[in-house]
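Review box. Two proteins, two foldings.
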Amino acid sequence: MRDDDGRKLDHKTLEAMRVRAVGQVEKGARVEDVAAALGLNRSSVFKWVAAYHAGGKKALKARPVPGRPPKLAPDQLETVYQIVAGTNPDQHQLDFGLWTRDLVRQIIATRFGVELSLPSVGRLLHKLGMSPQRPLHRAWQSDPRAVAEWRESVYPGIAADAKAKGAVVYFGDEASVRSDYHAGTTWAPIGQTPVVRTTGARFSVNMISAVSAQGRLRFSIVDGTMNATRFLDFCRRLMRDEGRPVVLIVDGHAAHKARKVTKWVTSTGGRFTLAHLPAYSPFLNPDEWVWKNVKADRVGKHVITGPDQFKALAIAGLRRLQRLPHIVRGFFADLNLAYIKVSA
């Protein structure tokens, strides 16, 4: 668009331009030349000339375009923002857990008696600085007080004790990935859903890993389901590989609290310590990001042909992370994990 484009001008200036353009055409100038000189579309100049012939000079006056008045007042827009940003639909007796344009439309109609179309609701939400996003799901059983206590006092105490005795702090977790787990997207012609042929057999790989804020990653592939014996094997290898005291923070899985595990931890004389996260609080564990990286970003995007290839993919994904400590350190940048960065 040219700097002298008439669409950028105010009404007074545009009116003067119309009079000038019509005057030049009436004196014999070509419409194309006048339009080019003024940075306008020639069809606009033709319309002005026709209007002048039909109604004279007064027909060239620029009239402000009033537009539609907003249906919601500023205070109502603020209320919509507070509702969507600060509450869930089920708090308003709406039978859904996520905000959709239709649910927002229902709220606006109920609260303010204003009916909006779905596209209008979408534009309104964008205007309020919102966009559709994939939410994080958290168990309702998670205790906010326990979480706050963990962040503010329990973990800082663990970190301080670990530093005093020269121990490294790890966060550990287990995960399983199945052969029918798929992730990612692929380009394809519009309207033609692509098909990726893969095995129809179902099998899984069980894994355990641990990460530190320094970017270290330790892992093991577990044959069978996780139990106290397999967890204990991982702990022993972790302590042996580190060659210094270790603190391992895990969730409340039964295998982590088994008697044989507790007995072995005691026998290490402080060289190995287990700590447990608050219940139903995986968002406090950076090791969750390992599984997102390996499962969603790596294994889930491959064509699976068989159990051995599937297991090899999982191992390759974990070994790749071991070689990229900066990515592992990046897991700790999650805002929910800021307590670790402060105390580590």
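Next protein.
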Amino acid sequence: MRLLIGNDDGIFAPGVRALANALAQAGHTITVVCPDRERSATGHALTLHKPLRVENISEIFHSAVQAWACSGTPSDCIKLALDALLSEPPELVLSGVNRGANLGTDVLYSGTVSAAMEGLLEGIPSLAISQVSYTSLDFAVSAQVSCELVAQIERAPLPLTLLNVNVPPIAFAELQGFALTRLGVRRYQDIFEKRVDPRGRIYYWLAGEAIEEEAEPDTDIGAVRAKQVSITPLHPNLTSEVGLKVMESWHLSLSNGFNSGLNNLKQK
């Protein structure tokens, strides 16, 4: 298969190297386009007010891998690859392997998931792969899981969907299989640490920790805790069907009273 790989940890991150090299060894045609430095938690940010620059990177990847470092965000990388760098579109977009989980509401901030979502927005099925550890630098198991999923998709093509995959940081033999899940909920306590730089100017450093999690067995969080590889299908439609149902009873209209209130405001 023709595969495009991005990430948010940067082109030199061990996770993307393990993923690209494993898939190249499995016989796939691999193009890697990643940020030239870490761009975690950038969401769908795009670079609009300065040029994007790319540099070919070859020494750290399998000889069959075509790799580029891009000065932009994870979303920039995928958009640039699809619209400018590739001569033909990939059959699948992958993002990762990310260092750290992307579980529950993390997906709204994740550069890893956003890069994969850019592929989906361009009509290409996508995978976002994360390893649920910030300390482990061995991505062999996550790469092996990714190869298994790509092989499955090659046998039975994936509909236009993004699969958000989270792999527990354990040996392959210890994994308790795959689990199809829904997003759980993670709530964080944000901490803005106030500091003073050497010039005496105040700045703030954002940190935070999860203080509440919904980890029912059918959620991605629950699956990972049960030593399963969590797979959650995502799509970009954020419409709240429940909200629409409730608002149907509002009977909204541009009544005379409403318009009169607007006119009064304009006169003031």
